[in-house]
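hi!! sorry for the late reply, been swamped w classes. u asked for the two structures so here they r. pasted raw, havent cleaned anything up. first the sequence of the first protein and right below it the tokens
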Amino acid sequence: MTVRLLLPDELEAELRQIGATRYHNLHPFHRLLHDGKLNQGQVQAWALNRYYYQSQIPAKDATLLARLPTAELRREWRRRLVDHDGDGSVPGGVARWLKLAEGVGLDPALVESTSAILPATRFAVDAYVHFVRDRSVLEAVASSLTEMFSPTIIAERVSGMLAGYAWITPETLAYFTPRLTQAPQDSEFALGFVKKHADTVERQQQVLAALRFKCDVLWSQLDALYLAYVAPGLVPPGAFNPATQS
């Protein structure tokens, strides 16, 4: 089948279709988490493993920032580093996630050490950082477009977890409040960049593949959580094990 050059709005529609069919809000672990059907240890495992992903977002953004060709682009992308790392006076997303982990009953030092994360979590997140480091700027920007779908999942996550877990408070989930405005701002810029610069069939196919890859990164992390902490419950050696926590 011959692939033709898509109009910018057609490309956007294809990108959004990837989100509609491959975003991790469809994963069974996600459904259990949001529907209040996990126990505290399982929620802790999610928070602990997800911290590694959150902590590496500014690392991957820094690798891309170094390759952006103009001051305008670097200023735009630098804002993401501040959002996640903070500015020294206001805590960023990484620090807020650490507070979330503490709020669900984890030792912040254990979480921050990343020593107890699942091997698959580390492999998936590192693969994402390497993808952004090694692929074209266009592909790296396109891989961030999962942010187009995050406001819906965040709203569902906050309401579902507050309703489903009596031991979780709004303060525990304070990480998500700034993301409701940050993520749309970030994705609007990235989408505009992709629609402008994906101007050949080859580049458009690279962009679509980059977003599919990012969805796979997020999905594979939940696969690992489900296998280790839901069914069949095979916790790898050295990984966080709720059954052994005091």
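now the second protein. again sequence first, tokens right under
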Amino acid sequence: MGTNTEFELQGLCHLALVCEDMERTVDFYTNVLGMKLSKTIQLPNGGQHFFFDMGCDQYLAFFWFPNAPKRAPGVASAAELPGVGDIATAHGSMNHVAFKIPLDKFDEYKAKLDAKGVRTGPVLEHDDSPRGVAEKYHDGVYVRSMYFFDPDGVLLEFAAWTRELTEDDVNLAPVNADGVPAQGASA
């Protein structure tokens, strides 16, 4: 049973991204990440829209537009891997796509990406320290992650939860556009 009292959302149907080369995208997502290409659509403007099965009846979709603007790292997409450089992106942009993986498969999946020649960033042990990342795993780590780029510079993440999130994990008031915490807001 979900926690949404307004709508019966059943997870992510699909996330739609834009690629520069659909052939290269199909190769990466099917041969490197092992996803099944499940649906292909020819668009009226000559473009394409393809869907890849991520599992659990959820899809990652890509558009290819014949006259799409070129990519803009540091604006519309992350310019570097987390733990390596700046990952800030513009308002309204999509920063990264995180795939949930089993914790006991984390090291195996890192080795598979490495063997396939995919450049990954450092393994990040996310915790609630001021830095947000621990030097090594400890009981306060809530998720382990590794990041990598697809051929179009889409920042991808393999993330493994290490514990269940609780009400104690919600402890910050949201800030406004100036970085000021909302008046009277409580987390």
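hope this helps!! also noticed smth abt the second:
The chain has a mean pLDDT of 90.
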